[in-house]
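Q: I have 218 residues here and want to know how they pack in 3D. Can you give me a structure?
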Amino acid sequence: MGKAAEVIRFYTLCNRLKDVVRSGWKVWHVKRERLESIAEHIYGVQMLAIAMWSEYQYELDIEKVIMMLAVHELEEIKIGDFALFEIETEEKLEKGHAAVEQVLDGLTSRDKIRELVFEFDERKTAEAKFAYSCDKLEADLQCCLYDSEGDVDLAKQEGNHLMETEQIRNGLEKEETWSKMWLKYSQGAYRYDENFMEVSEFAYKNGVKSEKSSASVC
């Protein structure tokens, strides 16, 4: 396969992520004309990373972080997106890495890109830890935006397997909104540094307002 053909092959594969809706929004029956795709999530995480790097002056390779975030969801081209608790971590990693190999097969720089994906998953370097925190916080902020638009009705969650888990039930009992529950869940589940914790707490206390809504719900 020539260079031009490989460019088109890879681009076309990645383009599929524009049409793959984030599974969590479907699980929670988010009612909206158009739900966030994987590609939009990738963009959102990259923009959040730039903002966090800018305002908190992290000493890390931000260009590497942006590249890492650009490719961290490549596996979902082949295996799709999984909501929380739908699959064991080890199984997801195994399937995900195999899928990444398929997607990258043929690219001249596949080894370098693969290393970025694996580095993100291992979360040992400063860049990977930062990128992972951005990935988790961005999802919570999107929850806040959906809440601010009134897109989630907790009374209408038929078939939502997450509502059956003790952690989620307890969280919803303690918090007044869906998005506040997720913010608090992430604060306990992920190893946020003080800066990510500050932003998460700010969203918890002040809300995140959608341009389409005058209300700040979180």
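Q: Anything worth noting?
A: The first helix runs from residue 3 to 15. The chain is about 65% helix and 0% strand.
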